[in-house]
Design a protein that fits this description.
binds 2-acetamido-2-deoxy-beta-D-glucopyranose; four-stranded antiparallel β-sheet; signal; glycoprotein; 2 domains; about 20% helix; Cathepsin D, subunit A, domain 1; aspartic-type endopeptidase activity; 8 helices; Peptidase A1 domain-containing protein; alpha+beta; six-stranded mixed β-barrel; about 500 residues
């Protein structure tokens, strides 16, 4: 009887210790103790894609981003003018289901392995900072999938990842549909259908798009299994795992559209309280980070996605060195991550770009996106940047190479012209954070012996997008609790 009491006391102590630990990490004070972060590998979806393919896909992606931003502007206006605006909200939300034209055309994205359900079922998903709903291809009671027969011309399935699979909610003990009558379905899930035939019916979506892409399915919650990092740098600490309960998951029973032949769905890293990023970050210190190796790196070099303290914090108690700038997480840009650009300079000279271009309030602004390859600059910024860069490169013979405006015969560099240095591009963010990408991130290898100025023009007014090539060889940490974006240059080898 005395022994029973002791056992009970020990159990209580353990429970208190666990609660204290999770409270500490939830409050953003985690110091990266071993097991306090989860690390996932990122694999390029189409490593062999040409620059021309990437440029084309990036333009489609930019259309998707612009359409979502416009839809959320419309919705905000509708909410301001009338309190009952369900029709307008539904029309606007048709853009919100992230499967519309160009969201996932394939070449610019990264795959991540993800396990969901009990027992855990493994999937290969597109990791996307521009999405709020995680979803997987699904086979349930409803209509069978038909889209797997069509082959994609663009995204060749990567041999590094497993072939597509389907999630079977009936096989998962932890799957729980979200009722359509729930507040989560009606207001938090932005794309759900407003009509609800009975209060127990599942929260569902059914969207078709002009470009023949479509998605139909139901939303529920399930648990996800993630591998915990070892905490000593190195290779992920083996087989320690954590289960995240209550992850919001779309179960897509019918889908069609390019980009989805090689993956099983999307892992949402956007800023939204239903996204996987916010769910995982709430468990692991309120932040996530990723590090992308050079897009031309050999296949065995791995990029990674970390929830919780990054490799810096794990190896020492000192705060991560590097720059930080406020993350703009307001409703106008959700679920995207916006940052404030102060100026762009070439060889130390700040370019003359109107401030509105960088202002979200003037329908400009800048987002950082994991699913865009080439950086897109709104017209005034694009013109200023390519003018300054091309002026410095004027000694080289130009080469025509669609869709780029400025390409150069780099092999001609040796004779005559001497050693022509690539001018130094720098982006100054609010809070004196400065991004100085390596030259290869903006004067890009486009063909053997040919380099191009690797930015694209975006419509003005419109949003500018920092693509993943400009982000490469940097660690980017999204501190959601404290609303900072931190970054620093690194080879991502940890
Ligand atoms: C929603 O309403 C439309 C039109 O009234 C109907 O065609 C559709 O089947 C309904 N969807 C659901 C999930 O009830
Ligand atoms: C999600 O955010 C909305 C407002 O954007 C809020 O009303 C809702 O309560 C939040 N849900 C959760 C689960 O935090
Ligand atoms: C990748 O493979 C090359 C040889 O194929 C090897 O030299 C290099 O060390 C490997 N890199 C990693 C990170 O394993
Ligand atoms: C680049 O210039 C060299 C001569 O300097 C020429 O042989 C080569 O064909 C040119 N390449 C292209 C792509 O124009």
């Amino acid at each position: 009887m005395a022994r029973g009491k002791v056992v009970l006391m020990v159990v209580v102590c353990l429970a208190v210790a666990a609660a204290a630990a999770s409270a500490a990490s939830g409050g953003g004070h985690s110091r990266g103790r071993p097991g306090k972060s989860a690390r996932l590998q990122l694999v390029p979806a189409a490593p062999g894609a040409s620059m021309a393919e990437r440029a084309r896909d990036d333009r489609r992606r930019h259309e998707y981003i612009s359409a979502r931003l416009a839809a959320s502007r419309r919705r905000r206006r509708a909410e301001e003018t009338s309190s009952v605006s369900s029709a307008g909200a539904v029309a606007a939300s048709a853009f919100a289901m992230p499967l519309s034209s160009g969201a996932y055309t394939g070449t610019g994205q990264y795959f991540v392995r993800f396990r969901v359900g009990t027992p855990a079922q493994p999937f290969v998903l597109i990791a996307d900072t521009g999405s709020d709903l995680t979803w997987v291809k699904c086979r349930g009671a409803a209509s069978p999938s038909h889209a797997t027969a069509t082959a994609s011309p663009a995204a060749a399935p990567s041999p590094a990842v497993a072939p597509p699979r389907v999630f079977r909610p009936g096989d998962s003990k932890t799957w729980s549909p979200i009722p359509c009558s729930s507040e989560t379905c009606k207001s938090t899930i932005p794309f759900s259908l407003a009509n609800c035939s009975s209060s127990t019916a599942a929260c569902s979506y059914d969207y078709r798009y002009n470009d023949n892409s479509a998605a139909r399915g139901v939303v529920g919650t399930d648990s996800a299994t993630v591998a915990l990092s070892g905490g000593r740098g190195g290779g992920g600490g083996g087989d320690r795992k954590a289960k995240l309960q209550g992850v919001v998951l779309g179960c897509t029973t019918a889908h069609a559209g390019q980009g989805f032949e090689a993956s099983d769905g999307v892992l949402s890293l956007g800023y939204s309280n239903i996204s996987f990023a916010s769910r995982a970050a709430s468990r692991f210190g309120g932040r996530f980070s990723y590090c992308l190796v050079d897009h031309l790196a050999p296949r065995n070099a791995t990029s990674y996605l970390t929830f919780g303290a990054g490799p810096d914090a794990a190896s020492s108690s000192a705060p991560a060195p590097g720059s930080r700038t406020p993350l703009l997480l307001d409703a106008r840009v959700r679920p995207f991550y916006a940052v404030a650009v102060d100026s762009v300079s070439v060889d130390g000279v700040a370019l003359d770009i109107p401030a509105e271009v960088w202002d979200v309030g003037s329908n400009g602004g800048t987002i950082i996106d994991s699913g865009t390859s080439l950086t897109v600059l709104a017209t005034p910024a694009y013109k200023a940047v390519v003018a300054a860069l091309s002026e410095q490169l004027a000694g080289l013979p130009r080469v025509a190479m669609d869709p780029f405006d400025y390409c150069y015969n780099w092999t001609a560099r040796g004779d005559g012209g001497g050693d022509l240095a690539v001018p130094k591009l720098a982006v100054q963010f609010a809070g004196s954070a400065r991004l100085e990408p390596p030259a290869k991130s903006y004067v890009i290898d486009a063909a053997p012996g040919v380099k191009c100025i690797g930015v694209q023009e975006g419509a003005w007014p419109g949003v500018s997008v920092i693509g993943n090539i400009l982000q490469q060889e940097h660690l980017w940490e999204f501190d959601l609790n404290n609303r900072w974006l931190r970054f620093r240059q690194t080879s991502c080898t940890q």
